[in-house]
Amino acid sequence: MKFNLDLPEKGTKNLFVYLCFLLIALIGIFYGNSIKAEFKFLRIWDTSNILLLLLGVPFLFLFERLHIPNFWENKIAIKHKLYLPIAIGAVFGLLDIFVIKVLMHPEPYSSLPPYLQPFPYSFFLFFSGALEIEVFYRLIPISLILLLSLVIKKNSYSNYFFWIAAVLTAIREPLEQLPSEGTFLIIYSLFTGFLMNILQVIYFKKYGFLSCLFIRLGHYLFWHILLGVYVEFFELV
Question: Which sequence ranges are marked TM in the entry (predicted)?
């Protein structure tokens, strides 16, 4: 298979957006270090996390070859790239709040649990975390598998390669974050975790990387950020 080494214009635009995302993560590192004396439980990235995310850069230039929409794909309506993904993520976030907070832990917290962080730092941390997951659970592995299907000249089977990648990447997160006890919580986490991840894979292939990232950001907005605001400013006061 012959590769063209010229960088496509849309790939360069993808890179610009991606670097803006890394800048947000970098700001979060500086911000976190500036307030860490106030919060003993603060989770802070370091520069090694940023360097690892640079591994995703080469794949930004392969989208057209792999039939994945670019970040700046004008043919895709904004509702498919932004509004619907955020709404889908919000549904999962609200569901998590209802099941885990309202039903299973209705009593007020005495301190922020590990999955919450002080606001507004929480925005930077969970944006960075969402980006990291989508790069290493979606962008890199799915692109590699699709690229493999091209290299071995099995284009007629590319759809099978995609669905293998879809299932493997969609089940990874719920298995890694499986609760240690509670049959209901285990079943709930597996089902909703797999469902959200498989939707992200579908959106990634159909509408591009930004759409699957915004699904996760919609989830994190409610489950990590807004819940954190409620706990920090209403339960802990």
Answer: 15-32, 44-63, 83-104, 124-150, 157-172, 184-204, 213-231
Which pLDDT belongs to residue 2?
Answer: 46
User: Two tokens at 211?
Assistant: 């759409």
When divided into structural domains, the chain yields a total of 1
Q: What backbone torsions phi and psi does residue 10 show, to the nearest 5 degrees?
A: -65, -30
For residues 212 and 190, what is the distance between their CA atoms, to the nearest angstrom?
Answer: 19
Q: Note the Cα 102 to chain centre separation in Å.
A: 25
**C-alpha angle 213-219-224 in degrees, rounded to nearest 5:** 115
**How long, in residues, is the chain?**
237
Question: Residue 1: inside a domain, yes or no?
Answer: no
Q: How far apart are alpha carbons 69 and 83 in whole angstroms?
A: 17
In the DSSP assignment, the letter for residue 222 is I
- Residue 62 within any structural domain of the chain: yes
Residue numbers in the chain where pLDDT is lower than 50: 1-6
Q: Is residue 4 part of a domain?
A: no
State how far the Cα of 205 lies from the Cα of 166, in Å rounded to an integer.
Answer: 10
Q: Residue 3 falls within a domain, yes or no?
A: no
Domain extent for 88: 9-235
pLDDT of residue 192: 95
44 phi-psi bin (left φ>0, alpha ψ -120 to 50, beta other) = beta
Q: How many CB atoms lie within 10 A of CB 192?
A: 17
